[in-house]
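Repro:
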Amino acid sequence: MTLHLTQTWATAPEGTSGTMVLTLHNQGNTAIKPTRFCYTSLARIDNTTQIDGGTLTRNFGSFVEIVPNADIPAGGTWDLRLTGLIYGVRTRTQGVLTAWITSKDGKVIEATVEDACSADGAARGVGKDWPAGDIEEPLGVLPWPSSVAITAWADHAPKLRPASNKDKAAFQTVSALHHRLFPTDPTVLSLVDGLPVTLENDISLPADGYKLRFAAIDISLSHQGDTGAQHGLIALAQIAHAARTDRRFKFPAAGEICDAPRFGWRGVMLDAARNFHSIGTHLRLLDIMAWMRMNRFHWHLIDDEGWRMPSRAYPALNEIGATRHIDGPIPPQYRDGPDGQSGFYSEADIAHLLDHATQLGIEVMPEVEMPGHAASLIASIPGLRDVEEPNSVYRSVQGFTNNALNPGLDLSYEVAETLLNEAIALFPFDTIHVGADEVEISAWRNSPAAQAFAQEKGLNNTHEMQAYFLKHVQSHLRAHGRRIAAWDEAAEGGGIAPENALLFAWRTKEKTAELMSKGYDVIATPGQAYYLDMLEFDGWDANGISWAGISTPYHSYTYEVSDGLPEGPGQLQGVQAAIWGEYFDTPERINALAFPRIAAVAEAGWTNPAQKSWSRFAALSRLMPQL
């Protein structure tokens, strides 16, 4: 490497999101004559930003291309000053992520990149607040059960086996799950050896619930249906695993545990559009979800930065839409280098994931984003732009220009219906998520086609045009036997019909109550508590994104979703954690930020507030597996 980049952020000038100074250091023995300098960054600029040191030629999402105004001498530097950012820097990791130059001879030279420095001397912070915690009972189970009444503890943790051959398949599923999650630890569920466990279906128990009775010679597991049986076996496996691997925990010798989930929807969303993750990573995440009794996987497959769902109707989506490259219509983003990234999930990949999820009792809901966040879609299919709409006439909050399907074009509806039909064919779950978030408020104002359409339909603004489009989509899904799901913006501009709809409240904690009062059934996933990419502490050394503020593990755990909710007419159906992809490009980064907060959401979805304990959770959450 001959290039190295340092970067400094300052809060000035007032009224903006600050100034970034980027310095490229030429470590080599010859001068570099750059024709373009490219970088990706979570800090963003627009046409109001003053640029000193070069000329802006492209600004799309997190990607910026500059023509430098000078060569970089051997052993010398070149400075680029960006004054008046529109999205600033709160931590060391929110500045430039990757950088490179193209020289006059056509060579691409990547730079090593240092963390951003604060010109204002920002405090470094105290780090993640995840105390060792304390346990009142030596029972290693999370989420914590509804009722625990253990009267005696065994000296040693036994292996467990099914008392009846009819229960071997259920045992084998959970035993295999345990082995995948903890491949080097002792077996806790055996098919042939150990303390017998008798399973009995009990329809008097709550939905998906179970009851464990411990005795010296056997264990009985009463359960409500197959799902309740799996929950009970996983709880048993957790208890035995903790007792076998951690001296703080023991296995019950007498007593009982009664348990059932608080909510029917206990979800995790993974954004695989902004950064492509392997199917292996997905399967591991599903295993972790099942271990914590989470049962809904929301798969965010589509966004501006990438199209990850297979399409027979529009194969360009899996070529153009799934690929980022410096010379392509979608340039590198986030931590991409000049070669970007490429990838989508084949029909076989999806079938594999669905089969795995089914074994674990997890339903998979795809998200086919529309009408906004459509840059990858628009780049792949000709005709989705109003040719009379100026380029770069509006910019989304993530920095993408002209990135929403146009409701004034017939092709928008044809493409949307075709893609939804493909999702219906791939995914058997009864609900399809269609996104509907973050359409720029000025979208379509300068589109003659959209404005003529709005006048014809009596629509007054962007919200009402989006609502018209979404109502069409809702009708299409209903005709195919599916329920529409969307982010909370789908209630704006008149909104979709509350009947046969499920909305995800994300922008504020108060959105859940607001949507319920309008008659919508709601999943609570507030960015301020359940978005796992948010900062965990206040300080320059923190990792993550900061638009929703700081969400410590304690805050995520103690946030009570039911506070301040109306009695109806809509209902709170459950909770969901969100793993958004801007910051999360590797499993290691997910592990560093998502845990233990993902376990906090799992317990919020399962355990009644009266049974929760932060100190106990802090201890038990350390037993949870990671990616």
